[in-house]
Give the backbone structure.
Amino acid sequence: MAALADSRLDMAGGAQPDAAEPGRVVEALELLLGPPSDGDRAAEPGPEPALCPETLRRNAAALEERLARAAGWAALRQLRAAVLSRAPVLAAGVAGAEPGWATACGLLALLLCLKERLAALAASPATPAAPGAPPPPGADTLSVGQERAVRRALRAAVGLGLLPHLPLGLGPEPGLGPPPGTRGPRLFAVVTALVELARLPALGAPLLARHLRLLLSGLCGLGHGPAALCQGVSEAERAQCREALRDILDRVYQPLAVQELLILQGQPKQRSPSAGAALAWLRRLCGHLLSERLLRPGGVQAVVRGVLEGTDGGAGAEAAALDWRKCDAVGKILAACPQQCLSLEDYYRQVCPQILDLLHIQDKVAARQFQRVATTTLLTMAREQPQLAERHLLQPLLAPLRRCSQATELAVEDLTAGAVLVPEAELGSCVEDILKVYVVGNDSSSLLLGSLQSVLGVVFSLYSFAKQNVSYLRSPCQDILLWFLEKAEREQSLAVLEGLARLSSHVPSLHPQCQLRVGSEGGAAVIVGETISDEDEALYQKISLEQCHVESLVELLSHCQKSGLAGDFFIHCLKELTQVVAEDEAAPNPTVEPGGTLLELEQCQARQGRKLLVLQLVAALCEGVSDTVFTDIVQVQEFLAAVLHRACAHPAQGPGAAAEAQTLAMAMGLVAAVLGGAAQLKSSDFVVLKRLVPLLEELSRTYPEPLTQELASDLRIAICTHGACSPGTVGAAADGVLGRKAGMGAQSPAGIPGRAPSPSSPRDGHGSPLAHRDRSKEQSTCREPSASAAPRADSLAPAGLQELLVSAYDPQPPSRAAALRRLASLVTQRDPEALRIQEKLLQVFLENVQHEDAFVYLSAIQGIALLSSEYPERILPVLLAQYECPAQGTEDTMAAVTRMKLGEVLMRVTRALGDMVFQHREPLIRAFLRGARDPDSALRASSLSNLGELCQHLGFQLGSIIQEVTCCVTAIARTDPEAEVRRAAVHVVVVLLRGLSEKVTEVLQNVLRDLYRLLKHVATAERDAATVLHAQLALEELDTAMRRVLFPPQTLEKKIVVLP
């Protein structure tokens, strides 16, 4: 800029240039306007506040004097004369007697001269930059001072020349305008000059940035205003103004153009009636121009930015509400088709892709508002034109998911394996767009729900995939699924859940040949999967995928329990199970009956697969969401009706008789519990429960078990009498379910029970001797060590404890486990009666440890651990004796399993004792060392694992026993034939080295060399990869420890010594 900043010529003399320099033109502008004042810094155009008419005349005279006589101004005088010769109206204005208009014409003439000089300089060849120097500025670049002078001149020219000549309603008040008959020609001359200036970037930027609205007002008035406002302007000149108007609107920043047109369209009506009528044409014109802006490429975003720019949410609820109302208004405007559009189809085709692009705005500040506008527009279009909205909005929005859906006919077979069908970025963007439109928009119209249902299967597959991996798509997919299940009708939601569970085809799932792959950005991509030739591997992947889908569905339903959807779906699955069983029994089995066709065999396999899937789903629902699955009495009644109906249609018989009987006992116990005080029933609730009466009556007549018949009849009586007549069997069954002692009666209502209780509690025998005798028979036929008669409790023990001891030998695992956990709870609470018979409790727990059901023996293990932690001196010797010497008369395999369970008990006791375990160190280590020499390999591995954990709890203070431990471990690691045992032995070494860390050279001083040789031998000669890995880990621990000992870290210390 230095060349232009210092381009002023010496006024006293000097060489005469061939052309006027820009600096000379700027000097003339400053001379015409006079020195700047504080008022010149105002942003709004208008008359110069410091320029009175006399000052304007004096400045104009000084400029004419300078142009006529000063040296170095001849070129500018000639250029100015040439410019005025092309603009006669401006020439007449310069010579006129009106000071304001004369100054405006003089300024415009000088600005046109500056424009010509800058254009000529820009066309000249650029001066090359010196090596290493920055590139020089352009020849047409103005300095800061010159730009300030140009902006001041533009403001004065617009304020003195354009503003007074604008039509009524856009310009000054009536009476302040120009002389009659001159408005049109003067306005055309000023507008033409300003449009010419706007073509040069150096002058057009400040002009359009500050004076665009007034320039548009003049162009609109001349090009499209009524004829009365354009007197003296020819039709060709008006056409020229219309062309200039479109050119200006096309070249400026589109949001700015939209803002200015909106302001012009919303100009307040003036007080005069004629002004109000005059603005009607302007409002129509601005609407037409805004529609043209909208239909341009990128026009939707330009309109939205033009309306919303400068609105960033504000502070406070009022500002936020105003922003949202503005966004909704813009959305509704975009949804309306302009009048000049050829057809509604064309408008949707042009605008809808731009509306979807609004969802992808990266600016975090404006993203919320653009998302609101896009969502409002889409929902409004969906309500007003559902077919067009689905074709141009919803289908492109859901296209990435439909592309990989099973319902879409794709040429996937032609694609090579591993080809990317939906890229990660596209899939993630699609899911986020669905979340913004459907979930955030929250419009549950049938069109939106129907369109979303077509891709829910793919969304669920993506949710299940993201649940197994680390992906940001898990949360949005879950929100989409939960939103649909909440907003849809209950029948539609149940049908969708059935489709997601692969029980029906209501929801298209992911294409069989498509697979999901983890993306590099935390998302997922859809690829074409490879065909698996190995049938076993294909079956394994299919079963794993089904299991994953069931788990994901159960987790999804865990969020729908308050709405009751989880309970309804659980009941639906029970009904489906009943239907599947009925179809399975009615259909012939082609594998058994000869002559079956291949079609019948396939149908049979399909039925079996469906049955297994329903059973898997019911089991997962029982485990995952059964705590609060039922939310009202209606769902409880439907659940009970489903169970009773299955019992009536298929009485307990065959291999699954025990499970069917257990389910029926649970259902009838639940009915008794509801009637016995678990819920506060009203008259309307009894109306619901009366739906069970026909099923209970049929059950009392047809069920083969007499006690069940009796209880069904009593329940029917209690329901029909609204609880007024409740036989004793109902109360006994209710007490068994609610966990009350017999005879306690109904307690305070606790709400509808969510989880069905254990069906065969020790109190569900209805208090009859026959039930106790049947239970004794079942116990006598059980093939387990605890099948002997239940021990008689001490005569001093209360009835409740006696009942728990009896229940600890119940043939039904749930009842037995519940009793064991209750006994363990009494030990934890230090119940005096329970502690008084601790030997008997220990016997009960030890016998139940041998039970084959995991729930039972884990409950027994917990009880023994709690009892041992309370009285270790009494209990630990018994446990160690049982661990070292198994019971006589038992099979070797059963004895080994029992000893491993006792090992788990000992380790739990060790954890519970904490630092107190040190006094029991030697017997525990001796027991585990003996177990490490057992013939059973699993027991040897278990003993070594327990030994390693015990060393950790002891703080590796093994004392003199360390030699025995290391010798045992070394021998086993070298000579044991089983890989898992050698692996456990090396793991003990790893635990020792890792736990001792820097103390390894002190504690293992005598055996460290032997352990090192052992590890090197295992690392080089061992065939088992896992054992080698353990050995390498141990060597790394040893290497780290030795490096710390040999090369201790150097620490710099500063010592301060105080001299005496």
